[in-house]
Amino acid sequence: MIAVNHLKTAFGRIYNLGNFVTAVMSTAVKESFPIGRNDAGCGVKRKAEEPVTGLDIKKIRQGQKELRPGFGSDRFDETEYYFQHGLRKVYPYYFTYTTFCKGRWVGHLLVDVFTREFRAHSREVYENAIKAGLVTVNNKSVGTDYRLKDNDLLANTLHRHEVPVLGAPIKILHNADDMIVIDKPPSIPVHPCGRYRHNSVIFILAKEHGLQNLHTVHRLDRLTSGLLLMSRSVDRARELENEIKGRLVSKEYLCRVEGCFPDDMVTCCEPIEVISHKIGVCGVSAHGKDCKTEFKKLSYNGKSSVVLCKPFTGRMHQIRVHLQFLGYPIVNDPLYNHTVFGSQKAKGGLTEKTKEQLVEDLLEVHNLKKWLGPEMDLTPDGSFPEDEPPDGGETGAAPELLEEPAGSHFPASLNHYLEGAESVTFRAMMEKQAFDKAKFVRRHECLECRCKYKDPEPEDLLIYLHCLRYKGTNWVYEAEWPSWAKDNWTDD
Questions:
Q1: Among the options 150, 152, 183, 221, which is catalytic?
Q2: Considering the domain boundaries, does residue 314 fall inside one?
Q3: Among 31, 169, 448, 486, who pairs with 161 as Cys (CB 3.0-4.6 Å)?
Q4: How far is C-alpha 165 from the geometric centre of its chain's CA atoms?
């Protein structure tokens, strides 16, 4: 058996692979420009010393995303969904991430840059990828001895595996010429990010409802459910954003918190600071930004309380952080209702450890709860066994599960998403799009294809936080109450 420490290290490489391309090679989503270093070590823009032949750098840098893989009109056809164990899943597919050469990379070997900057794998793995043509420069294959130049366009093609999300329909509450309003199920991010692309609201609406080119007006965290406003035009989106920024829009959320919340209205005005942008964690801090949330208890079932939340500002994780500070964290909040903050879970503020220690502890705790288990057949340095060359594939090889689920992973607290007219059509689609092993292609060069999969548990798919109502100057939209917020709910 492989040593536990090696399993953690190997698993870290697998998980980080999905993140390095979004953290460093994120220009497939957002443009970046070469940044160099002056003598003082400060970032300075650098002009290209020589143009790259065959590439219209100006057009690409001006945002001609259609010229880059993943942004053409065919992006929604890259792969298909399938439904299994109450989850929406995506067949693995090839995807190309791109980035321009950064100033600090100029003159360095391509393989050295990948090994140093993108530390998800060993040098040998990147050498194999370059030799196989999965890493290219200026749309051409190069050797492992290639040295990078200004304005080089790097591309890295990966066999992309997405994380499963809840197998629930996206209920469309309002569909007009200028606006789309939906009830977002939890576990689904709004935009493509990290290990989610097709399993995002934007892609699902485009693929299943033909709704493309939508502009989101406000944010909802991946685990949060409820009302989400989107505009069909930039102008309308800007109008709504200005209303929200001008605090002309009232927002109401529902949550279920631990314990008996006070009967009187509670107002929290503690400033909130982003402790770590990298892992997305916030906390109350004197150095944070001003914010205000009002809370009103609606019911108590003997163990937990349903609370109506009215945020007057829109800070990241504002409701969750303020509830944590007050000592009434959301019942199933995997982040802010955790002893990693200390024995008091940061009630009254982060007093039991430093911010730096918190970030370190959070990385350790949450890296152990991912949907992929450690690979079972890699060599100790993460390279490919000699008898399995890094090319070719196996069609019809079903993904292996660490353990076969006893039943559906669909949480009972979300059964309201499977009610109504949309659910009838959705259930029929789920049956039609059951797993087809002929569509699952296992690639030998893909490390994730060597993993055994672990489906997320029901409790990993949501938190009891629901966007209920938005009211503007001359409009109002409201979502359905979730099952867990009703008076007769006892399953905490």
A1: 221
A2: yes
A3: 448
A4: 11
